[in-house]
Amino acid sequence: MHALLGQNGAGKTTLMNVLVGLVRPDAGRLELWGADLDLARWSPAQAVRAGIRMVHQRSALVPALSVPENLAFGDPRGGPWFRARRAREAARALAQRYGLEVPLDRPVEALAPGERQRAEILRALDRGARALILDEPTAVLTPGEAEALFASLRRLRDAGRAVVFISHKLAEVEAIADRVSVLRAGRCVASRPAQGLSAAELGRLMLGDVALPEAAAARAPAAPPGSPRLELVGLSAPGGDEASRLRAIDLAVGEGEIVAVIGIDGNGQRELEEVLAGVRRPSAGGVRVRGEPVAVSPRALRRAGVAHLSGDRESAGLVPGMSLAENFALKGSYDDRRFFRRGRFDLAAARAAVAGAIARFAIVPDDPDLDCAALSGGNAQKLAVARELDGDPPVLVAANPTRGLDVASARFVHEQLRQRAAAGAAVLLISSDLDEAQALASRLVALVRGSLRAVPPGSDRSAIGALLVGAPA
């Protein structure tokens, strides 16, 4: 049972895609049970024939079909006819052999998350899996379901199967793994027995001993924050899965303060960003801006002065096919008199506004009518920054604002965030980049399984890494 750990972007997904044949490697060897595999012709079909199977986080089963039907679906060994009784008995025998009991007569869509997870593993085993890769298999499971899954995985290991277990949860690694490998920046930085490996050591291996950027180290200590400008009060919201559900979050960001919410993806960062953008409704609690409660909707939050800058430009920032001018006015409401006259969009006003932003932020090319899809990543983010800072908003929510940017573009975005805080705005940075968070923020908080946990002042990278994978503060 081999656990694979690493930050987001460390290379885990790429490595697993190599193993299952979706990515052909440039160099090296792949050996399975002592035999070299032919990487020149490596493909998903070759991986299946070799006995390498992967169970992804999201179910790949057909929801309307039962477990036996899913096992038979697409099976090249099957004949022209589906024999329901034979398929059911085969599925029952396989489930009993490995302790993976699931209801066999109900459609998959009616199964509980733990039952669907076991059905996924059954399908992999039915197709002859000798090496089984599990990507965050407990992300949607309750603790009881996770423990039942671990018992089944131990039986698979004891039966001679090789299991690669990808997880960010320290407790799970301690409970299940025989060995642990850690990826960082595309390299395997450690591979060692799991026994005796501490949370602090795992955190150090995942994050590395990297000094803060010189600009951050030389920066004078931040002034004490002023009165709260953004407050989250008992904020709860549904998540994409159980791990990302927001749970009674209380947080205040003061005037002139940058607070960073750090964490490993899948722990509620996206949900928090969407609540503060107004596109995910909370189930409890609320948001206050300058002491006043604000409805959680895009229009209400924007009118209250909450700007939202996302690193996901394609889906939450800019719209390809629209011009720079149109994107600059994109978040304006129909009653925004800068860009709308009697409910009609005033393109000339938008052109004039974006021309000023182009000059101020040195956006290239400088054509207001240019399709924003023609901009480089750095210039596209400059356009998004210019739009969000237009009007000097009192609150700025920035989620991974430098993702995918080069060093110069990232430095530009960082400087804009600092300037906004220096002008008195409250800046909430939601980031999966610890270096970025430490360089910018005067205070860090960790988001772990949808709950906020304070990061003690002066914590080193090992302590922070341990906190992010579930260790006590």
Q: What do these coordinates show?
A:
- By secondary structure, the protein is α/β, with parallel strands linked by helices.
- It folds into two domains: 2-197, P-loop containing nucleotide triphosphate hydrolases (Rossmann fold, 3-Layer(aba) Sandwich), CATH 3.40.50; 214-468, Rossmann fold (3-Layer(aba) Sandwich).
- The chain is built from 18 helices and 20 strands.
- It has helices at 12-19, 44-50, 67-72, 84-98, 113-126, 143-158, 170-176, 199-207, 214-218, 269-277, 298-303, 313-316, 324-328, 347-361, 377-389, 407-422, 434-440, 461-468; strands at residues 2-6, 31-32, 35-36, 52-55, 131-135, 162-166, 179-184, 187-193, 228-237, 246-254, 258-262, 284-289, 292-294, 306-310, 340-341, 344-345, 395-399, 426-431, 443-448, 451-454.
- Strand 7 and strand 8 (187-193) form a beta hairpin.
pLDDT < 50 stretches: 210-221
Overall form: globular
The largest sheet has its strands arranged as 4-5-6-1-7-8
Helical stretch tally: 18
